[in-house]
Amino acid sequence: MKHGVTTRAAHRRRMASGLLAPGVLGLAALLAAPWSNPGAPTTTATALTAAASTACYDMVSIAVAGRNDAPHAGTHQMLVAPDGTPLPAALSSEYSSDWVDPVVNAPGQAVGEGSYAAVYIDYPANMSSYEDAVNVGVDNTETVMRTIAASCPDTKFAIVGYSEGADVARRVAMEVGNQEVGEGGYDIVDPASVVGVVILADAGREVGGGPFPGAENEFRNPDGFDLAYQSGGNSAPGRGALPGTSGGFGALDGKVASFCSEGDLTCSAPDNIALLQLAVNLGRQLNVDALEREGLTIATAQDMATVLGQIALAAFADIQSQENWMQSDETFLDVLIKVSDPAYKPGTPVAQSNTPAGPLSPNQAIDLVYLPAKVRNEIIGFIADNENTVAVVMSDPYQQTLGPGTGHHFDYWRDADPAGGKPLTSSQYAAAWLTHLAREAEKGQPAARAADASATALVASSASTADPSDTALTTSTTSTATKELLSSTDSSTVPTTTSSAVPTAAPLAPTAAVVTPDTSAAFSEEPSPSAAAAATDTPPTQQEVPTTVEVTEPETTTIPTTTTAPPSPVQ
């Protein structure tokens, strides 16, 4: 909640009929399944409530969390569009992600009530078909943004994604930034309304790219935010594991933070691992959840055979469509990698001839001449393309990337290095940036000013008091709704995460729910931040760091924000 800052009424626009947040009546027992996310909340009860929103927000953060970490209709209270259409999203007061909460909920503590909101996107968030899940996430994200913009054209957006959700965030940002305006305007939203994008573990990252692609100083800071992320021009080696999703952000260049930790093979994969790249492309189309759950069965084997068969047919069709393929330097492995990418679009197929076979044509004779060289190039190319494959396999890539307590996929909450010129973790920096953007949106000003003084104070406090190896920028708040119609509605929150308050000007009704972290499930891709930080047999504890982060703003009073350490995991 904002202290000493008056919310400007000029920034609130009344809606004829606002977003509704209906609940589900009765108890909903949620069973923990293997490979579910221990960091995802479990809703034990919901209440039937509904209230009309009477105002627009100055800024809304669209959050897309990782695998098995998303709200779903029927178990979480979802938003409803002004025309009554259910929206695939829930307020951050209704759904909590241990990973993304510290980033998207931080701005809510620095601006006035009704100025800022964060919503989580509902999408499959699974590996039953990775590509299908991500595509649904993209569609749902764009639907929510489009709906909000239609009712509140002055609302600014931030997009935040982590892990599987990072792929969604990248694709949405690329589509928004590279739109061409039509007669009726932009198909999704005006790119100018998107003020920031945060991608944690960017699988579409290009080789040598800095954390802020397209910015004036891509290694230091996004445009309009003068707080330095790091000193020097450090960049994680390698590239993203999904190069087919890479590309520029168009009008959003300079507004994107693409974070990658060295050793996180989802975004820092070395070159020359062709076989592993082929395996990644294959995995994007397989039911990996079923393979993990059931092992190799008749059903999973059929699934694998179907995908492999489709890739093989596509490879031969691609070769056939290239008249001079035998004379080219492209190897068969190159073709397999190309056609196995779900984004691959086949070229024009070569028409089949029904004429009887006869003497070799001149082109076929030439191909025979090139056959020995082609075979030699296949062998040489295979060796060169897999120069680093053995090294990666021997390094135990799963443990290196996703291992509990050591996996680099979780570094973004513990990667501060004050002595090395990096005072904040990646998640803390993202939270400070979004807070700056929210303040600018509240004032009705473009996000092109110097960093807030609060960000500088945050750096000093974090560098001197927080343990960068395992401390996430978290605050504990209680979600409330003080609108008269909802005065009796009660809610409780997980103390280790940040829940932004439900604004009094726009009460999207919270449910009477008790939210607790699920600790009964096996380890999955995204365990809780504390589980990734360290392995311990002690029960969860809430430890206060005896410091406060002083957040100040030029015309306003100081806002105290307490930084707390995450709890230890339950084994």
TrEMBL record:
SUPFAM superfamilies: alpha/beta-Hydrolases (SSF53474)
GO molecular function: carboxylic ester hydrolase activity
Keyword Disulfide bond found: yes
Transmembrane segments: none
Domain of life (superkingdom): Bacteria
Pfam families: Cutinase
Region: Disordered, residue numbers: 462-503, 516-571
Family the UniProt entry places it in: Belongs to the cutinase family.
Keyword Iron-sulfur (UniProt): no
Name of the protein: Cutinase
InterPro entries linked to this entry: AB_hydrolase_fold, Cutinase/axe
Organism: Rhodococcus oxybenzonivorans
Comp. bias (Low complexity): 516-565
Keywords linked to the UniProt accession: Disulfide bond, Hydrolase, Serine esterase
